[in-house]
Amino acid sequence: MTPTRLLGMGLAGLSAVTTLMAAGPASSTEFGTHALPVPVVQTCTGILNETFTPGLNSTLRQVTAEGSGELTSCLPFGDPLPASGRVTSTMSGVMSCTGGTRTRSTTITWDDGGSSTLEESGGVEIPAGGGRTAVFRGKILSGRFAGATTVTTRTLSPLPSPQCETEEGRTEISGPLTVEITHLP
């Protein structure tokens, strides 16, 4: 790993590199092509655009959604970890602008051509200190990191949109996305 890549990794990356170095060299045949010799956490950030049918309003109702976006920064990165990816998702559940529960199926196509398919469930949470987030917890079912647990967080506007007060509701939402992958071999 080059010094330039190490500088961009921050403390979380330095910890992972130190752990990997302490574990010693491992051959790809010993652990598989994409498997890692030690537990690793990779956090990716980006943007997700979602379209809801019918739109989200102030009433809990059955809603479906489709989303697409980009994970533009994943840390740590470097062989065999990807640096970025493209996200597509479908979601359904009983939802409103302020709550409800939903399940989501997501595919991440990584920058190196690999992919991961996630199944998650969750809803809107209000963290300490204010704001609103949509938090999904689940597992990677297939592809890279199969068997890993995931936590996906969408940062939402602190206040519901005026569209939430209409029958049609809010049909589109775009915003920051964070995907945390915990791989426990």
Question: What topology emerges from the helices and strands here?
Answer:
Layout: H1 3-7, H2 10-23, H3 28-31, E1 40-56, E2 61-75, E3 85-95, E4 100-110, E5 115-125, E6 132-143, E7 149-156, E8 170-183
Antiparallel strand pairs: 1-2, 1-8, 2-3, 3-4, 4-5, 5-6, 6-7, 7-8
**In percent, how helical is the residue content?**
10-25%
Structural class: mainly beta
Q: Let me know the number of strands.
A: 8
What's the SSE pattern? HHHEEEEEEEE
User: What is the distance, rounded to the nearest whole angstrom, between the alpha carbons of the first and last residues?
Assistant: 22 Å
Beta-strand portion reads over 45%
Cα radius of gyration in angstroms: 18 Å
Shape: elongated
The total count of helices amounts to 3
Overall pLDDT? 80
Going across the biggest sheet, name each strand in turn.
1-2-3-4-5-6-7-8
Poorly predicted sequence stretches spanning 5 or more consecutive residues: 1-38
Biggest sheet features: 8 strands, antiparallel, barrel
Note down, in words, how this protein is organized.
The protein is mainly beta and 185 residues long. The protein is built from three helices and eight strands; from the N terminus they run H-H-H-E-E-E-E-E-E-E-E. It has an eight-stranded antiparallel barrel with strand order 1-2-3-4-5-6-7-8. The radius of gyration is 18 Å and the shape is elongated. The chain starts with a helix and ends with a strand. The N terminus is likely disordered.
Can I get a quick summary?
This protein has 185 residues and is mainly beta. The protein has 3 helices and 8 strands. The model is unreliable at 1-38 (pLDDT under 50).
